[in-house]
Amino acid sequence: MPSSSRSADLIPPERRAIFDEFVYNNLPRHLLHVKPAGTNLQDFEIEVISASQLPSVFESELASILRLDRNRRVSKDDIKKGLGELLKFAIFSHRWFQEGEPSFRAVDSRRPFTRGYHKLISFCVQAKEFGCNLAWSDTCCIDKTSSAELDEAIRSMFRWYRLAHVCIVHLSDATSISFDELEKDVWFTRGWTLQELLAPMRMKIYRGNWKKLTEVDNDKDHDELMESVSKITNIPIHDLRHFQPGTNRIRERMSWASKRITTRTEDIAYSLIGIFDVNLPIAYGEGTWAFHRLMEVIIHRCDEWGIFAWAGSPSTHHSRTNAIPQSPACYHLIDVGGFPSETAEKVHGDTSFTLSRQGLFLTVMIAIGDIERKENADGEEQLLYEFTVKPSHAGPTFTTVHVQSSAGIDLEGYEWAIGILNYRVVEPEGEYGKLEGGKSYVSYLLHRRAGEEAWTREPTDNILIVNTLFESESREPLRGLWL
At 300, is the secondary structure helix, strand, or coil? Predict the structure, then answer.
C-alpha cells in the first residue's frame, strides 16, 4: 500500500501488516473524507480518497494507535479496535435522481450546488453526527471506468453495508412511519435497496427534508417502524433486524425481490449476490443471462424444494430444461399456512436434485388427472383451466387445481398429471413419499403424449396449489423426472 506519509514509513512491518489487513478487508477501495469547515452545508468539505491515502490523512491518529515507538508493546486486538473506531464509516442508501448526482471524478466543494450534491453533503453531515470521518456513497465512491473496481464493489457491497458503522437512508417521499406513507416511497421498489435494507446492523432513516423519521438511535429497534416496513416488504421483522445471507429459504427470499425493479437488467441478479452469499462474475451486457447464471449457482448449493416453487416465464438459456425461472418476479407470494411443517427430522421434497447439461433431474410425486378449459370472467385476459386428480380411493382425495395461462394450453393428444414437490420423504428414500391429510402442496403441471414415458413441465402463470382431502396420510410412489 504505497504512501507518501512520513509516519507510514515509520510503521513497523508487523504493525503495518495489521493495518493493511484491516483496511483491505473492512473498507471500500474509495471513501469520502468528511471535513466540516463551518455551520452551513456549503461549508462542508468532502473529498474522495483511496485506501492508500489513509496513513497520510490520519497521520497523527495512526501514530497513536500503532504505537510507533517500537519499545511500547501493543496487541493486535488493540490495534484493530483502534482502527475500527478511527476508520468507521457511514454508508448511504438512497434513490438516485435522474440527473445532478456527483460522480467519482466530480466531487468538488466548489462545484455548483446541485440537488444531488446537496443530498450528498446532507448525508455527510449526518455521518459526522454519528462520529464518522469517512463515508461511502455509490454515486461517487466507485470508479466505474475501472471494470475491476466496479466488479469488486458489486460483489463486496453487501459486506460493506454490514460492516458500516451506520447506514443512513434518505426517503425522498415518506413523511412519517405509517404504512400508508412509507409504502409510497420509491425506495421500497428498487432492486439494490433490498440488500441495503437487510445488511446493516444499524440504520437511521431520514425524510426528504432530512428530518429524522424517529428519535431512536437505530431505526431497526423501532417496533412500529419495523412493523410498517415488514408489511410493505413482506420480510419478517427478525430478518429485518438479524438477516443472515446464504442459500437457504430461496423461495421466500426471492419473493422479497419479486416486485423490485432495476434500471439495468443484469442488476436484478447482481443485487442478490450478497443476499445469497454466492460468487458471480460481473459482465454487463449479458442481459437475462445474469439471473440464469445466478440461479445455476444457487441450485448447485441449495437442497430445498422451494427453489422450484415458481411460476411464469422460464429462462431460455438452457436448451434442455424450462425449470429455471427468468427473474425473481416468478417467485409469487403464496400462503404457506396450510403447508405441512418441516423440521430437520421431517425433510420434504427432493434434496438431491441435480442440474447438468441434460437438464434438471427432480424427484416428484405424480398424480394423474384430467384438465379442462373454464370460462373467463369478464375482463380477465388469462386463460383459466381446472385440473382434477383421478381418485385412487373411494371419493375425491384432492381439491381441484386452478391453472392460469396467458399463452394458452394445448389440451389435445396429451395425458396430464401434477408433480407434487413438497411431499415428505419416507424410507426407503427415493421410493415413496407421504402426504398429510388436510394440507397444501405445491405442484407442477405435467403432460406427455399417449404411449410416451417422459413427462414435460407445462409453464403456468400461477403457482399450483393442491390440497389433500383425506384425514390421515397417504403414501405414494415417487418418480425422478428430467424437467
Answer: helix
